[in-house]
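Continuing the batch. This is chain 6 of the set; chains 1 through 5 are on the previous pages. Same settings as before, nothing changed between runs. Recording input and output for traceability.
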Amino acid sequence: AYERGIALFRWPNVYDIWNTYLTKFIDRYGGKKLERARDLFEQALDRCPPKFAKTIYLLYAKLEEEYGLARHAMAVYERATKAVEPLEQYEMYNIYIKRAAEIYGVTHTRGIYERAIEVLPDEHARDMCLRFSDMECKLGEIDRARSIYSYCSQLCDPRITPSFWQMWKEFEIRHGNEDTIREMLRIKRSVQATYNTQVNFMSSQMLKASTNATGTVSDLAPGQSGMDDMKLLEQKAQQLAEEAEREKPKPKDKILFVRSDASRDELAELTKQANPDEIDIDDDDDEDEDEPDEVPLEQKAVPSAVFGGLKDD
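Output for chain 6:
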């Protein structure tokens, strides 16, 4: 009956059928049909939306922990951190770290912490960094903990997250010396300068945009107060172009350049006017000199000896 229901329905309607089917299958058979149970879980996770993936992955990992292999369970948790929704990734990483610490020990969680810090957003990544550094302190790895604090400092604005810098200061007081505290203060100034530069640049750009626009949106386009900034800039540019076109000086009638508004008759009349500065070049003489004089020709009788025997007597 469950198999027929799964074949008939699609996601998300099939979620309840899969959830009930897998739960009852594990309760009845346990580890007796482990391969069959794994096959069912893989079928359920195929094309499963991220919204419903968390419950199935946790059920799958529980099966592997109780009846299967620990490395298979860790692989399922690893897949779950990538398959769930972004809002559930932080919770999934916490479960993954907790189960890995219980099964393999806390040293096995270092790689998980590193992947979580890379993937999660800044708010959750800061929490992961603090937990990671606290774990390293408990293991006696002070240098590792300090490097984690240094990495996390790039995500913490001193004006927004003063608690992080206070925790780092207390850490250096307990485990560091004067040089490490001085280095921590130097990093703090550098991070603060970086955030100040970004904020100042953004504010200057916004101020520049607001001062360049001489009119409001309602002034440029009445009745369109919801218009975005791009349309505002386009209308402003169009208005400036129209003003420049109106203020352009009109050309005079008698000033002629390569192109002019004068008619063809006016141009023909201007070409007929004599130019006092024109240089007189006598072209007729050159033409006469180039032509050869007539040569008189005389007619003479051809001697008969020239023709020889060809001419009749």
